[in-house]
Design goal:
2 domains, 186 residues, single chain, 4-stranded mixed β-sheet, alpha+beta, Peroxidase, domain 1, elongated, 62% helix
């Protein structure tokens, strides 16, 4: 079993349990907001991520930090879930659990995730156009955009929704032209 699949096998049941709790308590949107905040916090703080993942740090110390950081920010059930992850020595998988939870939430709400790579920042109108294209591709009720800027694209955009890819980048066009030219000279 590969390392990624081991992480998946651990993270998925916890994400499903959190979703089950959220649905049972009618707190799905609140938990979704809590999970997004946690993922943002982990992205912003390398120190926190390393602290939580460190196997030498005592569980009580991790719990104390989580309580001090999050008691006022997250629902008490979310905090209890995090403390349970510490007790079970699964807190180091928090990011993966959160991403699985978000995927479950998108599925529940019929929201597609469009991963967009562009050469430059997009304005609101451009994002709206991409959102419409992704809606057409998926038939979902809504689309969540995850936008990354990659100047190597030179210009244009690459949109990934599930297994579908639309490559409208200049780099992609140049690659297609090069392929056509190389195949025509053979």
């Amino acid at each position: 079993m590969r390392g990624g699949s081991v992480v998946e096998a651990i993270a998925q049941p916890y994400a499903e349990a959190l979703m089950s709790l959220a649905q049972g308590q009618n707190l799905v949107e609140r938990f979704g907001s809590d999970v997004q905040g946690l993922l943002d916090l982990l992205t912003q703080s390398e120190d926190l991520r390393e602290f939580l993942a460190n196997p030498l740090t005592k569980g009580e110390d991790k719990k104390a930090v989580l309580r001090s950081l999050l008691t006022e920010q997250v629902h008490p059930y979310t905090l209890s879930f995090l403390l349970l992850l510490v007790d079970r020595r699964r807190i180091l998988f928090l990011e993966q659990i959160g991403k699985h939870f978000q995927a479950l939430l998108r599925k529940l709400n019929q929201v597609a995730l469009a991963e967009v790579t562009t050469a430059v920042e997009l304005n609101e109108a451009q994002q709206g156009t991409i959102r419409e294209k992704a809606l057409q591709m998926t038939g979902a009720r809504d689309v969540e955009l995850n936008i990354a800027v990659d100047p190597d694209l030179i210009g244009g955009v690459i949109i990934r929704v599930g297994s579908q890819v639309v490559d409208a980048s200049i780099q992609g066009q140049l690659r297609r032209i090069a392929t056509r030219l190389s195949s025509s000279t053979v």
